[in-house]
Specification:
This protein is mostly helical. The protein is 53% helix and 0% strand. It folds into two domains: 104 residues, no CATH class; 34 residues.
Amino acid sequence: MSDRLPLSPSTDLIPAPPPEYGGRSLAREVEDRLILMPWMKQYAAWLVSADTPKTATGLPSTTEQVKYVERITARAVTYAALRSLRRRGDFIAYLDRLDASIEVRAKERLISDYDFYVSAHRRAVEMALAANDHRAVAGLTGPILDRVIPKKQEVTTTAQTIVINVSAEQAARLHGDVLNEIVVETPELVEPDAES
């Protein structure tokens, strides 16, 4: 049995890099990347998580940080590389966004777990097919197909005509270039009956 408890699908191991990757270290990846990689975002979410044990500094111990990142990336990492990552401006901004609101944290977790949900859905469809449960297959595939290939195509809208009523004095104050686009119609005024 594993010594780690799966807190969420995002804590599952990310596959090891392919052989052509050249065994590049995470420290080099921290320095060279201009954007935050998925493992960096996952590390940030782990840092702000209430479930993460913290020391007096407000951070998990150095050993726990290194072990966590090694577990999610399946690669060796040094604490110096993690410290360097925590000093990056984009990482600090991302931490602040996560720390500011639980809604942002939940949305980021769903985004980072997207691959898990897609693979879990695929496994559910495969299990339903293996069990010849055609009703379950229809229930699983229908909503996905409707989302990917909508039944209603987007309708292109035509230009709308907007009518603005202005008085003769207002029309006289408008600039000449605007007047070229305006069709002026003078409605006939009906005088109210004096008797009524």
